[in-house]
Design brief:
- This protein has a domain at about 1-5 and about 40-90.
- It has 2 helices and 4 strands; from the N terminus they run ββααββ.
- The protein has helices at about 55, 60-70; strands at about 1-5, 35-45, 80-85, 90-100.
- The longest helix is centred in the middle third of the chain and has 10 residues, at about 60-70.
Length: about 100
């Protein structure tokens, strides 16, 4: 699933799934929740420092994506990947969410 989001759209990501792995009472069931890989790719006019600035600038979006999945952003079932490119066009963020296969 992909969605382009501008800097103003960090509040709602539209990536919520119907199976968030929630047990009654709001607890998360690790067996029911799929593992996902979330890739955030920034298009901007100037590259950011990848160590600090890139991740810090995406923190509100990361929090919103994790919440829409019913998980904390530090949950081990989410693999976060970051990337960036320069553009002469409109800056923005592309978000890709992929379900990872369970390892046997």
């Amino acid at each position: 699933m992909e969605r382009d989001a501008s800097a103003q759209e960090t509040g709602g990501t539209g990536v919520a799934g119907s199976n968030t792995g929630r047990k009654p009472g709001g607890r998360t069931d690790p067996e029911a929740s799929p593992r996902v890989c979330v890739t955030l790719h920034v298009r901007s006019r100037k590259l950011m420092d990848e160590h600090d600035n890139l991740k810090a600038s995406l923190k509100p979006l990361v929090d919103a994506i994790a919440a829409s999945l019913g998980l904390e952003d530090k949950d081990g079932r989410i693999v976060w990947q970051y990337g960036q490119t320069t553009t002469r066009g409109k800056p923005g963020v592309t978000v890709t969410v992929e379900e990872l296969q369970k390892s046997v």
